[in-house]
């Protein structure tokens, strides 16, 4: 007879314990008030972006949130620029810098109150930049938009102008030399520039087209409010033949300002690695900027007077700056058709900078269906741009006819060809480019040299250049600067 207790002690699968009876009805989770505040601000942002009309309930709720967290109500005023808000509340400037860059991952709990504050500031920047309205645009409105776009770039951790392809590096206060904003955050520029830069450039171009530009230029007071940008320069270059008198003078002044600003940035990039090695056989130039302070002090330490606590200097020492260089010829061929205007401006300026380097012989050719040798003005990008005529078709064979005779010593020659390569005599042009490459000259095809890194290249040419062993450079202008410095060193 089986023991009745054996069944209870025998090994087997454990039975789940019976659930305990609930102590009472379930209590719903209380929503976080900060989450509600943040959602109100972002709902208002979306509503405003898609419909400029006010939603009374969202506006009143957002105003209550902004006042509750101690921010100024001016953040909700669509007519107030970020500049005007910061001028009245200077403490906010540091908060805008790096505002939209990724936060470092931490194990601590989320700071929901900080997220609400961040939402209010982000909404202000995005609405001012992306809600551009319709109708005619004044010079003051364009200047305000450009300023707000600069604040957006700072919020993304960049310098004002970096993403739009404008005056890269012309940052304002609070922007670090490396191009990052405050807070020590580093944005992923490889992701931001392709995604946001072209959109900002397109918005700016749209605003410029909505301006009565000729009327603005004819009024010195209004023209003085314009801030030079790539979009504005493009319109000025296209319309320069229709301007005269005061309007033409103001247009030239704006082009000159833009050229000078971009030249300063590109010159810095070129000079970061000067061409050639130091030539110590050439005596150093005895000027103050070459004075070697440390070596001068070290060499004169024996003349130190302890009683007078004074160092008497018998001899000054200077740094050698002359460099050994091999004469090089740089031939820059630029497609000046309408689709390549930003490359035309950047490369014209870049050519002038290299023209100022020792023993670099620069030649500049611009073309559409006709070619123009701009070499006599290569040292002056302003005069060069005034001689260009944007638009028209593209026939690179006429440019090649001017470029090939200039290749006297192939081994000491680099040919930079900037174009989107949408050519109507493609086979003939590519064969001549291959011949230049086979001759021993360095051939560099460039599809985009904008500051924003945007460009389109004919895939037929792209594949053939790759097979030739000279892949197309496409992206930031720094890539071209690096290639040229490598060849000329």
Automatic annotation (TrEMBL):
<dbReference type="Pfam" id="PF05762">
    <property type="entry name" value="VWA_CoxE"/>
</dbReference>
<feature type="compositionally biased region" description="Gly residues">
    <location>
        <begin position="166"/>
        <end position="185"/>
    </location>
</feature>
<dbReference type="InterPro" id="IPR036465">
    <property type="entry name" value="vWFA_dom_sf"/>
</dbReference>
<feature type="region of interest" description="Disordered">
    <location>
        <begin position="1"/>
        <end position="34"/>
    </location>
</feature>
<dbReference type="InterPro" id="IPR008912">
    <property type="entry name" value="Uncharacterised_CoxE"/>
</dbReference>
<feature type="compositionally biased region" description="Low complexity">
    <location>
        <begin position="1"/>
        <end position="29"/>
    </location>
</feature>
<feature type="region of interest" description="Disordered">
    <location>
        <begin position="163"/>
        <end position="187"/>
    </location>
</feature>
<protein>
    <submittedName>
        <fullName>VWA domain containing CoxE-like protein</fullName>
    </submittedName>
</protein>
């Amino acid at each position: 007879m089986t023991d009745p207790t054996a069944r209870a002690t025998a090994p087997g699968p454990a039975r789940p314990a019976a659930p305990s009876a609930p102590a009472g009805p379930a209590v719903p989770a209380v929503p976080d008030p900060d989450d509600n505040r943040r959602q109100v601000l972002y709902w208002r942002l979306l509503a405003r972006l898609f419909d400029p009309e006010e939603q009374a309930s969202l506006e009143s709720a957002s105003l209550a949130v902004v006042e509750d967290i101690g921010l100024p109500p001016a953040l909700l005023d669509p007519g107030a620029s970020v500049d005007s808000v910061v001028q009245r509340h200077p403490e906010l400037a540091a908060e805008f810098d790096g505002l939209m860059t990724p936060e470092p991952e931490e194990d601590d709990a989320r700071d929901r109150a900080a997220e609400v504050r961040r939402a209010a500031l982000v909404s202000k920047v995005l609405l001012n930049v992306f809600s551009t309205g319709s109708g005619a645009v004044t010079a003051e409105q364009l200047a305000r938009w450009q300023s707000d776009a600069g604040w957006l770039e700072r919020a993304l951790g960049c310098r004002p102008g970096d993403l739009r392809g404008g005056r890269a590096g012309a940052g304002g206060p609070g922007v670090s030399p490396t191009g990052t904003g405050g807070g020590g955050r580093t944005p992923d520029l490889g992701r931001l520039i392709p995604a946001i830069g072209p959109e900002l450039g397109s918005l700016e171009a749209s605003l410029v087209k909505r301006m009565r530009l000729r009327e603005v230029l004819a009024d010195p007071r209004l023209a003085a409010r314009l801030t030079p940008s790539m979009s504005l320069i493009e319109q000025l270059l296209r319309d320069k033949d229709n301007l005269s008198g005061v309007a033409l003078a103001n247009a030239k002044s704006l082009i000159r300002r833009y050229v000078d600003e971009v030249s300063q940035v590109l010159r810095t990039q070129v000079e970061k690695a000067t061409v050639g090695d130091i030539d110590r056989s050439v005596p150093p130039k005895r000027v103050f900027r070459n004075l070697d302070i440390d070596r001068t002090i070290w060499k004169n330490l024996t003349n130190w007077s302890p009683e007078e606590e004074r160092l008497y200097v018998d001899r000054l020492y200077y740094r050698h700056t002359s460099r050994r260089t091999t004469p090089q010829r740089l031939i820059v061929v630029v497609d000046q058709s309408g689709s390549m205007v930003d490359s035309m401006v950047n490369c014209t300026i870049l050519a002038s900078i290299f023209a100022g380097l020792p023993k670099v012989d620069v030649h500049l050719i611009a073309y559409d269906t006709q070619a123009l040798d701009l070499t006599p003005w290569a040292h002056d990008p302003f005069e060069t741009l005034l001689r260009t005529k944007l638009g028209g078709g593209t026939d690179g064979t006429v440019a090649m006819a001017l470029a090939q005779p200039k290749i006297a010593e192939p081994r000491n020659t680099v040919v930079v060809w900037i174009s989107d390569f949408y050519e109507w005599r493609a086979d003939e042009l590519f064969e001549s480019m291959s011949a230049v490459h086979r001759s021993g000259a360095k051939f560099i095809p460039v599809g985009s040299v904008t500051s924003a890194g945007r460009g389109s290249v004919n895939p037929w040419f792209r594949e053939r250049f790759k097979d030739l062993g000279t892949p197309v450079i496409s992206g930031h202008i720094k890539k071209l600067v690096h290639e040229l410095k490598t060849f000329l060193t």
